[in-house]
Amino acid sequence: MACGGNAFRPDATAWHDLPLRAKIHSRPRTNRREPASTPDTGLLWQELRDHLAGLPPLERDRLMRRSRAAGHCVDATHPPTHLRIARLATRDSVPAAVTATPGESAAIDAELAPHRARLAHAFLAG
Question: Which residues of 87-100 are buried (b: 16+ CB within 10 A; e: fewer)?
């Protein structure tokens, strides 16, 4: 099931509901495209993970309903996000088929760092 034009964007509707985004956007900026200061992107993503992990079940359900109604998805090659999350919830956890050594993990982190920073800047610029 493709999503066509409903591809994920950092400013997708569900993100506007997150208090974390409001907190970040309340920081003063010099212009709309750049944050006032360079963010610690690792901290941003950790704050986002912590925020999402701490959502009460009722709020998580509300966000899922909103995502379902809007048809949010990653891109045209992926099913809508709400369907992917629902499918994962019905499956048991299994051990990882592929693992990485600490050195391999560090190399992957280094390779992804510029992309992580670019996405953080897009998220903050809204």
Answer: eeeeeeeeeeeeee
